[in-house]
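Encode chain A's predicted structure.
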Amino acid sequence: MHSKQQPCSLVFHTTWCPALAIAIAIALTIALALTLTQSAQAQTYTVLYNFTGGQDGAYPEAGLTMDRSGNLYGTAYEGGASNRGSVYKLAHRGGGWVFSPLYNFTGQEDGGAPIAGVVFGPNGTLYGTTEFGGHDCGEGCGTVFNLRPPATICKTILCPWTETVTYGFNGSGDGANPGYGDLTFDQAGNIYGTTYFGGNNNADGVVYELTPANGGWTESAIHTFNGTSDGANPYSSVIFNAAGNLYGTTFAGGAHGYGTVFQLTPSGSGWAENTLYAFQSSTDGGKPFGGVVFDNAGNLYGATSSGGAGSGGTAYELMPSNGSWIFGLLYSFTGSANLPGAYDSLTMDAAGNLYGTTTKDGAHAAGSVFKLTPANGGWTETDVYDFASGSGGAVPYGSVLIDTSGNLYGTASAGGANGYGVIWEITP
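Encoded structure for chain A:
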């Protein structure tokens, strides 16, 4: 699936090749000049960056992370010097944006194919996962990695960061192959995430914890899924509530085989799993890739990639009630392709509106950005933007990022000026 060519970078500590630096600088200059603006229901859609498939990366599937200065960070699943993916930064400077690649994966011990995004850890550096690479197990079982900026101030866009592997999965009891879910930190600095394969005596995935210890990290699988009652193949991130419980979803398994929403509660020296809901597909949706988010009242919200009345996935709510949870259907999307709905978690703004993306819904069956607004005891869906497989990009897998001004940001994994995907912005 990936090229075997040797990169100009060293595992863990990247060095830049002068010839490649010139080539990428030219490519970035051209790509940054290519933007597309389109009006969508009184909002403006703009392509901020077109991926070239070179050192900058290709096919971004994850959503974006923003720092305090308004700069954007993300990952590309392929591309880079070894075609094993990249981590990048899009800096907001003046009235424009400047793209810079931060790290190119080799697909070896440093990992490869980052399908999830990056997040800032307590120390201010970036953390993320790769789906493959790392230790033995085919193309590798995946990694958790850390990226640190250069020790001195960099005056050009070509300033690679230093990558270290926080943990490499071995495919046994510790899990294998992290999916779409971003990492989560607790207040003590421990890291939590999921793998969609691996675990003791089965291959149905785990929820894991990484604890700092003696200058390194110790991994423990705090829950291993059995593929039946508690679900199978968790692709999503997990989130905490105020009481310290973890919540997430599984793509498959459960009572009906279409995935679950689960809760993990600290119990003595371990964690107790409780299945909050098992999807049935036909009316409520099924196969959720994305996780869940909380509102201020403690209700959970999420989306599924398939099922529902329109066969295009659903958006749903789970409300706590007397020790149990009540399922509420917010909206059913329409789609005819395989798994056309949402692949990532929803995003809630300060007013309680929900935003997300679908991969094959929309007017052109190339994906959409949607908004769900609470109104009169129900929810109203607004089609914010429809992708059309052309220069504007297509097939958005990642979540929607909202800044303090109400601007929306995200990625599309295909299309664009070069066919390798785009980074986009929608302004009010």
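Residues 1-41 have pLDDT under 50 and may be disordered.
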